[in-house]
Structure formats: structure tokens, C-alpha cells
Amino acid sequence: MKDYIEERAINVANYIVTNNATVRQTAKKFGISKSTVHKDCSERIRFINPALAQEVRKVLDVNKSERHIRGGMATREKYLHQHR
After folding, report:
1. Residue 37 burial by CB count (10 A; 0-12/13-18/19+): exposed, middle or buried?
2. Cα angle for residues 22, 27, 28 (degrees, 5° grid)
3. What is the pLDDT of residues 39-61, one digit of tens each?
4. What is the DSSP string of 17-63?
5. In whole angstroms, what is the distance from residue 10 CA to residue 7 CA?
6. What does the pLDDT look like over 13-42, one tens digit per residue?
7. What is the pTM of this model?
8. How far is CA 19 from CA 16, 43, 64, 69, in A?
């Protein structure tokens, strides 16, 4: 694996853990795709830093369990702010 990919994977993982960030937020922050963030956090980081990989997995699992709630809240906000 190239050095810059390892460095990016570590930076992405640290950002997610530090900020409890979602994959979308992280992708936007680093200017990369969601699939790249996901691959960095679920595959690459395991080989680079297994302890960090476990921490990232915890955050991503929480985000996944809450995503249906966040979607509903976003829809509610959208319709509350629409003007008729």
C-alpha cells in the first residue's frame, strides 16, 4: 500500500473517532468519496492500526444504528422550513 493511502486512512479514522463524524461528513471534510472513506475505515485501517480500527468500527456502528432517525429528522426539518 502506498504511503499516502496509509496516511489518509489514519487521518480519516482519527477524524471519525475524534468528532464522532459520519462517513458523509468525513468524505466532505477530506474531499474524497464516501466509498473511499468506507474502504479506508473498514479494510485498510485494520492492517495499519487494529486498535484504531476497533474505535472507528464502534463509531460507525452507532451511526448506522441511528441513521433512520437522522433521516426522519432531516425530512421533518425540510418540511418545517418550506413556505407555502
Report:
1. buried
2. 100
3. 999 999 999 999 999 999 999 99
4. HHHT--HHHHHHHHT--HHHHHHIIIIIHHHH-HHHHHHHHHHHHHH
5. 5
6. 999 999 999 999 999 999 999 999 999 999
7. 0.82
8. 5, 20, 16, 19
